[in-house]
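F.,

This is the one I mentioned.
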């Protein structure tokens, strides 16, 4: 009777019973092997590459098993919430193509039958279960303020005892309803603590999805399950939500490993089946000759936004993540070069127990392969969308003449041996800037230093002028190159490198030097795709203007 009085005193506005809430949530009708996983970010900062990795695995486990992957926003810590954080997290999910079946959408609405999917909208729901725990003498109010808790901690430390709120140190554990009523009458704020049935002396055993069999000390702390503002702590809210939403498997970083005893205890106290937990070692990076964890403060590449700004295609991130998830993936990919990565079955038992190394060079190699394999249409669509978000100047160049832009990105799209010029979309604006007149004309004359030693500037201008008189935009490649050979011969250059190598004293250089002069005149670059292809894309008017500009421009030798 005392406990009923106490629960009514603390929660006079709560009239529902736990079963009333449970009845609102149908048990999911899925096949036995189907997994229900979730991504449950807190909008208190940016999404890290490690967080995206864990989310990627959760999505794969759910969808490869015919299950459900949902998005839940854990926004009960209002003091630490960062404005715009949630929007950036959801933008990252969209950018990297991580599809969820239920949860909060970008428009702020919700999809799914197991909501609300924001914890801040579920406060009254949690209080139903907390009131029930108080009524069953499994939870109680604690009126200790920060000063009192620090006093307890100081005393424990002076006696070399374990710090925390437990046993004899849990001063409000045995308060009667009358004592509680007196504290409430004084206007004292309170939290609700779990009356832990655990003991620090006991060991619990559980099988981690990634790490295997583990032994951990049982939780003996009377943890806070409801804060003074009426909102639950993360520990309690996640247990209630995971049960009601039917979560079967939880993938998270191993910084949560120490919380497993608390979470197992909460599920046991509430009388619910526990989900299975898998804890991932942190992704590592090289720092000189040693490996270390990513630092949120020091490493720009710790944030997922870095990879969005740089423009790594979502397919490249997915492919690279798969190589980190299971070591057998690369062998599978060699045997199935044309199949989607989603055909590979992720197995948690085959994941690395130690932290995988994030190899940026390997990511870039994969990304080059991905971009090289895109059609011109696909590439233009993706780079335009990236530019719309991160490079508005380049975006306007692309959309001002989409036909020209399509021809530019189509260079080198040989289905048998495509060029691999780009590792990310941010490589593209500078790589193709010479195709656009305003960027080309803004170039300094530094490119003149790159003229071949055998071709002084006056001769270079004469070569370009001579070629301009022969130029015909309708020439096939062979005729185009034939005219270049004629110009080479005219100015004392061998028509091929082999001839020059045999008789270097007879020639100033070879046709490659002439080609380099034309390349510099056309692009102000020494390294470009095939010059014939470039000129075909630029078209007659632009080619003639650039040839004439170089041939007739005053300059110093």
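My design for it:
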């Amino acid at each position: 009777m005392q406990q009923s009085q106490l629960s009514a005193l603390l929660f006079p506005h709560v009239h529902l019973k736990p079963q009333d809430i449970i009845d609102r949530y149908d048990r999911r009708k899925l096949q036995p092997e189907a997994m229900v996983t979730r991504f449950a970010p807190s909008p208190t900062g940016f999404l890290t590459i490690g967080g995206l990795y864990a989310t990627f695995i959760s999505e794969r486990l759910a969808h490869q098993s015919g299950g459900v992957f949902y998005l839940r926003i854990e926004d009960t810590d209002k003091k630490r919430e960062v404005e715009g954080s949630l929007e950036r997290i959801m933008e990252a999910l969209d950018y990297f193509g991580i599809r969820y079946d239920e949860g909060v959408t970008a428009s702020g609405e919700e999809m799914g039958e197991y909501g609300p999917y924001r914890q801040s909208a579920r406060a009254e729901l949690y209080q139903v279960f907390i009131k029930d725990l108080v009524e069953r003498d499994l939870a109680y109010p604690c009126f200790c303020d920060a000063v009192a808790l620090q006093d307890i901690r100081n005393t424990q430390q002076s006696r070399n005892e374990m710090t925390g709120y437990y046993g004899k140190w849990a001063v409000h554990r045995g308060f009667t309803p009358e004592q509680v009523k007196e504290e409430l009458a004084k206007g004292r704020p309170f939290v609700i603590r779990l009356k832990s049935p655990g003991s620090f002396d006991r060991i619990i055993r559980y099988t981690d999805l990634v790490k295997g069999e583990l032994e951990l000390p049982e939780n003996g702390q009377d943890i806070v399950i409801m804060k003074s503002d009426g909102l639950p702590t993360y520990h309690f809210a996640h247990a209630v939500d995971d049960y009601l939403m039917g979560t079967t498997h939880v993938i998270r970083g191993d910084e949560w490993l120490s919380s497993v005893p608390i979470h197992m205890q909460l599920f046991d106290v509430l009388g619910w089946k526990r989900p299975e937990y898998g804890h991932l070692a942190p992704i590592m990076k090289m720092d000189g000759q040693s490996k270390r964890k990513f630092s949120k403060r020091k490493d720009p590449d710790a944030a997922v936004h870095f990879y969005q700004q740089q423009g790594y295609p979502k397919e490249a991130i997915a492919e690279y993540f798969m190589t980190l998830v299971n070591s057998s993936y690369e062998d599978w990919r060699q045997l199935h070069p044309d199949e989607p990565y989603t055909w590979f079955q992720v197995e948690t038992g085959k994941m690395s127990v130690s932290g995988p190394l994030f190899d940026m060079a390997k990511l870039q190699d994969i990304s080059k392969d991905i971009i090289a394999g895109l059609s011109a249409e696909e590439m233009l669509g993706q780079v335009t969308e990236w530019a719309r978000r991160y490079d508005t100047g380049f975006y306007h160049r692309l959309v001002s003449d989409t036909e020209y832009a399509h021809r530019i990105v189509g260079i080198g799209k040989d289905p048998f041996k495509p060029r691999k010029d780009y590792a990310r979309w941010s490589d593209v604006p500078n790589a193709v800037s010479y195709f656009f007149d305003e960027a080309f004309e803004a170039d300094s004359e530094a490119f003149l230093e790159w003229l071949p030693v055998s071709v002084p500037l006056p001769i270079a201008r004469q070569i370009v002028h001579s070629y301009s008189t022969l130029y015909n935009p309708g020439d096939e490649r062979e005729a185009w190159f034939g005219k270049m050979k004629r110009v080479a011969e005219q100015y004392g250059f061998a028509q091929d490198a082999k001839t020059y190598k045999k008789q270097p004293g007879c020639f100033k250089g070879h046709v490659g030097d002439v080609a380099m002069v034309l390349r510099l005149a056309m692009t102000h670059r020494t390294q470009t795709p095939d010059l014939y292809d470039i000129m075909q894309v630029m078209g007659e008017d632009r080619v003639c203007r650039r040839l004439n500009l170089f041939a007739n421009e005053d300059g110093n030798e």
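The longest strand covers residues 203-208.

Talk soon.
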